[in-house]
Amino acid sequence: MKKIGITGQAGFMGTHLYNTICLYPERFSRVTFKDSYFKEDRLLESFISQCDVVVHLAAMNRHDNQDVIYNTNIRLVKQIIAACESTGSTPHIIFSSSTQEERNNQYGKSKKEGRRLFEKWAESNKARFTGLIMPNVYGPFGLPYYNSVVATFCHQLTHNELPVIEVDGELKLIYIGELIKNILTIIEKEEAQSKILIQQIKVKHSSEVRVSTILETLNAFKTIYLENGEIPSLDTFFSRSLFNTFLCYIDHSLFFPFKLLKNTDNRGSFIETIKLNSGGQVSFSTTVPGITRGNHFHTRKAERFAVIKGKARIDIRRIGTDKIISFELNGDNPSFVDMPVWYTHNITNTGDEDLYTIFWINEKYDKTDPDTFFEKV
Description:
By secondary structure, the chain is an alpha/beta fold. Helix content is 31%, strand content 29%. A six-stranded parallel beta sheet has the order 2-1-3-4-5-8, with helices on both faces. Helix 2 (41-50) crosses helix 3. The longest helix has 22 residues, at 66-87.
C-alpha cells in the first residue's frame, strides 16, 4: 500500500486527489498535509519522512507582483528538497507543472526551474521524480478568478453576474477527474518502470475549445437548466463534465427544491417531472415512513430526486466537509432536488404515508462500474 502525501491538499486539485485516494483504501493511504507545514521545518520533515509518494501541488499562480509568484514557488520546491535531504528520505515526487513553462511569465519560469531542481535532486539521490506538464484543468470546486476561466464563468452565471471574454483563445483542457486518474496510474505503475527514475510527462488534453464556445455552452445551461429546470444535452464527455462543474456553483440552499408545475382538473393532476435533452435511466421508488434511502455519492453522475407523493427530507453534504444542507419536499406541491457530484445524499420519508419518488440519473446502471460510494450524510 502506497502512503501518499499531497502538498496543497486543501486546494482545487489537492482536494480532488485527496478525496479520490480515499475511495481505494486497499491500494492507497493518505498522509495528511497542512499549509502551515511550510512554516515549520520540523513539521515538513515529519510529513516527508512518512510518504512513499509526495504529490507537490502547492503553488502560487496569481499575484499582483510577478516576482512574488516566482520566489514563492521556488521556495516551496527548495523546502521540500531540504526536508528530503535532512531526513534522508527519497519519496517518489510528482510535480505539477504547466504548459506555461514555455511562456515568458514568472509563473511558467518558476515551474520550469522548479522541475529542474527536483530532477537534479532525484539524479543526485537516485530517487524517483515525475514532472507533469499539464494543460488547463477544470472541474467542480475550482476557485473563480483563480483556478480557471471555467470556474469564473460558472460562478458568474450562477450568481447573476455578467461574464466578459478578455481573450477568445483556444484552450486545451483536461477534466479534474481525468487528471487524478492519470496521477494514480503513474503511482501504481512506478514499480513496473523501476529503471526509469526521472520522467517528464506531457499530460494530454481531452478537449480543445474556444473560450467563447465554453461561455455559449454555459449560457445554454443557465437557460435550459436554471431557468427552465430541464436537463441539457449531456451526450459528450465534455458536456457532462462541464454540466457537473456548473451544477456545483449553484447556491443549493436557495435554488432547491425546484417546484414543478402541477396541472389539475376534474380528471386529476398531471406533472412533468423530468424534461430531458439527454439520455440516462429513470427509476421509481416507494419508501415507508421513517426510512432513509441513499447515504452515498457519485463522482461523475448527475442525478435528480423528484418527490410526487408524501413528505420527504433530502440531506446533502459535500465530501470532506461537515455542512449539511437539508430540503423539505411535499408531494402536494411536487418538486425536485438535483445531486451535485462529490455530495453524499439521502432521502427520508418524514410523513405518515408511503413516499413516492422518481429518480433520474444520466447513465444506465452498470454493476461493474457503479460510481456509487457509500458515506453517511
